[in-house]
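Ticket #4471: structure export looks truncated?
Reporter: QA, pipeline team
Priority: medium

Steps to reproduce: submit the single chain below to the structure queue and open the exported record.
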Amino acid sequence: MRITLIRHTSVDVPKGTCYGWSDVPVRSTFTEEAAITKEKLSGNSFDIVYSSPLSRALLLAEYCGYAEPAIDDRLKEMNMGDWEMRRFDEIKDRNLQKWYDNYLTQPTTNGESFQQFYNRVVSFLEELRDKPYDNVAIFAHGGVLLCAGIYAGLFSMEDCFNHLTPYGGIMNVEI
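Actual output as written to the record:
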């Protein structure tokens, strides 16, 4: 199965802000960014299109011509828990340093660790793999694309952040 993963366009939040599950606005450059993504997707024919339920992914799916994608909560970004919509440099939480030291297994306060996030995305991909599709599109988030790349064997979990797809970018995997 070929999966085309599309990261949402850039968001209108201050740099360094945790916004995983928060439904944040896209930047004023959305139309220009989305047009580039739409052009890159032209000529593709998908058996099904999925999206995260968060508006930044849904807006791009709609702009690209997929107004009614299948929605799955497992395609949300990493849950940052109590840190949502707070800047990292303003977080006063003893777990922050623990998370910096070991984000793979240390969850954010009332959120998830990267391993938990990965397991959530993998549960979606495992279920998808058993469906009768050849060509699938998924509109989601940078972290979801990283998890899919790890699952597909493109890179390791420890090295994944060196492979972050840019806003509006596309990554293809085979599963």
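Status: closed, not a bug. The export was complete when the record was re-opened. Leaving a note from the reviewer for reference: The two ends are 5 Å apart (CA to CA).
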